[in-house]
Design a protein that fits this description.
Keywords: DNA-binding, Transcription, Transcription regulation. This protein is an alpha/beta fold and about 260 residues long. The radius of gyration is 20 Å and the shape is elongated.
């Protein structure tokens, strides 16, 4: 049994247990912490809002990049970890100059950046992301180029040979992309969608600078499809939730990491 804890201490205990076990039970946690099940549920709701776990019936599980990509709907992913994604998008916004030619790939953080660019100024933006395209609709100073291709309704993006042909025909100043996971030890970043690999690789080749927008939940994991090496990027932009040792690993490997 534990002595009575504050809300912050309870939530830290919950995170410690879920890291060790992979999942927790509301009822068991309430007994251990000597609080009501409603109190535990409130703690889980708060931790889920912060993007630290996924609530399930009767408990919660560890939140991983794979869960985000495979289990969450697009609409849920848009709302997940919003504060971190907004902070990352704001940093990316500061790297853009009026008159830039940009490529925006799919991903919720990149779509938030697109929203911020609506009234930014004169820009040319190519994208295969339906969500980014929708965010840019009606912007009087932004010229939007949609790649064309085969619609993936789950990822809200265009892919296939036509999309690849479009991106191979473009030379841009900067590309902003996301990924499903990063391994700083291997120096690689990954996607869980095969269709994204060639498109993102082409964009990195055809832009002067490539920026990876990724929140802290994506680090130290590997997916099946390798997009590229972290050294190909101008910088990785992430949020303050990233463990300091991950930042040190990237910096030691010569990979700039900007923490929002």
């Amino acid at each position: 049994m534990l002595a009575k804890l504050s809300a912050a201490e309870r939530q830290q205990y919950i995170l410690d247990q879920i890291q060790k076990k992979g999942s927790i039970s509301v009822s068991d946690t309430a007994i251990t912490l000597k609080v009501s099940e409603m109190t535990v549920r409130r703690d889980l709701m708060e931790l889920e809002k912060r993007g630290l776990l996924q609530r399930r019936h009767g408990g919660a599980t560890l939140l991983t990049a794979q869960l985000l990509d495979d289990l969450y709907s697009w609409e849920t992913r848009v709302r997940h970890n919003v504060e971190a994604k907004v902070a990352i998008a704001k940093v990316a916004l500061g790297l853009i100059s009026e008159g830039d030619k940009l490529i925006l790939h799919s991903g919720t953080t990149v779509a938030l950046l697109a929203r911020m660019l609506r009234s930014y100024g004169s820009l040319t933006i190519a994208t295969n992301s339906i969500l980014s395209m929708e965010e840019l609709l009606g912007s009087p100073q932004v010229e939007v180029i949609l790649t064309g291709g085969i619609l993936n309704p789950d990822l809200k993006q265009l892919a296939g040979p036509l999309a690849l042909q479009s991106l191979n025909s473009i030379r841009a100043d900067k590309v902003f992309l996301s990924c499903s996971s990063i391994s700083t030890q291997d120096g690689l970043f990954f996607t869980s969608a095969m269709d994204e690999v060639a498109l993102e690789q082409a964009s990195i080749r055809n832009c002067r600078e490539a920026y990876l927008l990724v929140d802290h939940s994506k680090f130290q994991r590997s997916d099946f499809w390798v997009v590229g090496q972290l050294t190909q990027l101008k910088a990785v932009i992430t949020d303050a939730g990233i463990p300091p040792e991950r930042v040190k690993e990237m910096e030691a490997a010569g990979i700039p990491c900007i923490v929002a």
